[in-house]
## 1
Amino acid sequence: MEVALCRHESLTTIGNGMMRMVSVLRLLSPILLGPNHSVWLSILPIPGEPCRGMHSSKLSSFSALIYIVQSFSASFYLLFLMKPLSKPHISSSADRVQNTHCVDTPSIFLQEATGRITQTMEIAMVCTRVILLILILSLCSPYKFIQSPMDFGPLNLLPTTTTASSDFGRILFHSPSAVLKPQSTRDISLLLSFLSASSLDKVTVAARGAGHSIHGQAQALDGIVVEMSSLPSAIEFYKGDVSYADVSGGALWIELLEQSLKLGLAPRSLTDYLYLTIGGTLSNAGISGQTFKHGPQISNVLQLEVVTGRGEIVTCSLTKDEELFNAVLGGLGQFGIITRARILLQEAPHKVKWVRAFYDDFGAFTKDQELLVSMPDSVDYVEGFIVLNERSLHSSSIAFPANVDFNPDFGAMSSPKIYYCVEFAVHVHQTTNTNAVEHAVRVISGQMSHVASQLYSVEVSYFDFLNRVRMEEMSLRSSGLWEVHHPWLNMFVPKAGINGFRDLLMDSISPDNFEGLILIYPLLRHKWDTNTSVVLPETGSTDQAMYVVGILRSANPNHPVDGCSHRCLRELLLRHRHVADAAAGGLGAKQYLAHHPTPGGWRRHFGRRWERFAERKARFDPQRILGPGQGIFPKGSNGARMQPS
Ligand SMILES: Cc1cc2nc3c(=O)[nH]c(=O)nc-3n(C[C@H](O)[C@H](O)[C@H](O)COP(=O)(O)OP(=O)(O)OC[C@H]3O[C@@H](n4cnc5c(N)ncnc54)[C@H](O)[C@@H]3O)c2cc1C
């Protein structure tokens, strides 16, 4: 295994490309050189040799350089030596006799040994050699090294792709050296075992789920990206008092939902958008309108199968290897790669009653949201968003199939007026009496303080409700607005700071030209396990509620009037940074799906939890191989963080 993996690591250097050529030359040398080929073999380096001898040392640039030079000279020397091979075809018998004393004319040996090779056979041999030479040269071309997949032993590392170096944010594009498409957990274990044992300082590994990160979190500059979607996606279900599904870390939540609905089940806690992977959201938290009731997705996992940074395959839970289980949940991909997860399921409702109410007052808006999350027995989902302009009113209605007759005055550019929308949902089970649901919604909304008559409700299938963002995606895709820059900022804000945060936010945006959505909704602290790696705001108060605010901005570089160039993108990112820093400093807010350009920023982000996080890293990924895209534990030059140019 060691040799095979040595070859994998070699993909990152040209010297190792040369190894490929040398391997081919060694392999073909008996045909090219005849019986005394072994003389020439001795001058060729042995492929894989530098790795074998480098357990504790490293593939330093110097040794790589020596190796390249050695390989080049040896290979070319060998190719030049082939010239005399054609001699016998044109030489006289006398020449041949003379040449028998010459040690560097191997085909003479060949001819003498065989003696009876006919002229036709010799021509055939020459042709074969020419073909083989062409083959060798084509294998040696740099183009070939970059373009062709390279199969080295048990793992098949592939050349990088544009997908592996990009994400939804379209802000950073860090190219890895190679991509692994694992066919099993063992493939990932093999890779990480080797890398951690070899102490190769520069090779890092990032698991890539659906690549819906914003700031290159699933990228690995010059490292290896593991495409989690390649893992077999079979889902196993258990239906009982406690129902659950065992699912691959690379599977999408939509796949799990579709399969479980066939059994009348569904995950208890989902994200708004379902084309995200199980491992990707569990590495963050996974939140949505159900979080106030069931907690984030990381609170709804019974067991994980993880490959640690050391390459160990561990099945962990709250009762077995608890430290690893807690570390990985919300662990930003730093401690291990989630290959399987056991996700809690509940009985799926048949439909939902989906309600939206509009507000012109922020205080009334948040008060009603807090009222709704205090009624978990009656309410199943609570979210909300800011209505900044006509466009945001229109785009938020794409998936909501009611005839919304809300035409507010958005004011002038100098004195804009903004509005808010609360949305909540009540599950409708097949056995539920429809009148009872109508009654429940009336009772709930009767306690709310929205703008008079601005409450709308619709009944939709449970699947359509959960998959609502897909409709928005399709609409954005059709107008070319999906694959644009996404300078997003998500913050957890303590309840006491939410008014201050709103002011800070409104000072930093112009409502009239904001493209995108600003989500605001409350979460309840006691639904979060503080032993996991997730970071929440620290407050001295006993307030259970805190808010998540998602500034989900789109910046279209191709817009004919407001096209957002690199400069504009940089400015938006700086503005978000200012909001994030001010909110963290003054209001005790913390970023969700955080991005910090320096390790110091990450330390401040973790606050008093930093030590535990760093200890977990030292324990489960001591070589700092995993999750380089987060920039928390940089190693060598690979850890350098780049800002968009
Ligand atoms: C349109 C859209 C809607 C979204 N809606 C929500 C939402 O409602 N709620 C919410 O909470 N989030 C939401 N997100 C954010 C989303 O949860 C995160 O970006 C998440 O990381 C995306 O998952 P992914 O599979 O794309 O992960 P990736 O972007 O591929 O990876 C994210 C991080 O997790 C690591 N990682 C990936 N897979 C694994 C694994 N198997 N094991 C260990 N580490 C791994 C990566 O290395 C990286 O550090 C949304 C994002 C988008 C683009």
## 2
Amino acid sequence: MTTSSTPVLTIEDLTVVYEAEHPVTAVRDVSLALHPGEILGLAGESGCGKTTLAYAAARLHRPPARIASGRITFHDRSGEDIDVLGLDDARLRAFRWDKLSMVFQGAMNSLNPVTTVRAQLSDTLRTHRPELSRAQIRERSAAVIERVGVDPARLSSYPHELSGGMRQRVMIAMAMLLEPQVMIMDEPTTALDVVVQRDILREIVRLRDDLGFAVVFITHDLPLLLEISDRIAVMYDGEIVELDTAARLRQEARHPYTRKLLGSFPSLSGERGAFIRTGAEPEERS
Ligand SMILES: Nc1ncnc2c1ncn2[C@@H]1O[C@H](COP(=O)(O)OP(=O)(O)OP(=O)(O)O)[C@@H](O)[C@H]1O
């Protein structure tokens, strides 16, 4: 997918510290530009700071995490530049889900167990789109649930009546509901079995193609990340040490850590997208 030159989100010199007894600088001077419609993969070993960066970008970090310095700017399609770190609580609530949304690992468990899928979707729509009529809310809820491959009859279901895969799809529908320009996905399918993961990932790529939102995608599955990402940022000890297209990283990774990371997957010469397009299993992807 080609990317336009004006980013949708820019992160500049972001530093995030956990103010524990021994403070940990989990994200160090990170700068990043996310372009409209691109899938940016975030790779790196456990503990390198991926989740901290993702949470901070959505301003979802909680104490002891503190943003020590940096700027996050959302370049809205309306032309307005939004200073994300400067938003007050009310504006932040309006910003989240609407402009930028998140799907985290296990997000499916954050669905409210005592309300139906329909009620959860319509609550969000009523809050953020008060101008919509009841009929429009019903229509939109059915359309979004269908888009993520769930039968709209399921709108009347409670979360416990759905499989894990379906619940995670509902969370993706929630994240897409207001047509945000950026979605941050941290291990969105990790808790699911491989076949369901593949179906959902294929769906995410297709939806991105249709709707044009940008995605920051975090997974430990490097082969998968290489296939679905337009560019990959490699993090090491809180810093982004390399950022390039998946193809170029495969051929000419400069940083020793990236080479080590790629070297640990000897069969990574497969054509990008084969897994998503054909559903080939990892061992067939050589
Ligand atoms: N609540 C916390 N208090 C103190 N340190 C923390 C806290 N949460 C995370 N850290 C530290 O911050 C660093 C980055 O953690 P983070 O979870 O962002 O890494 P990650 O790359 O997402 O790891 P994983 O891939 O395992 O999810 C690690 O050193 C971790 O120990």
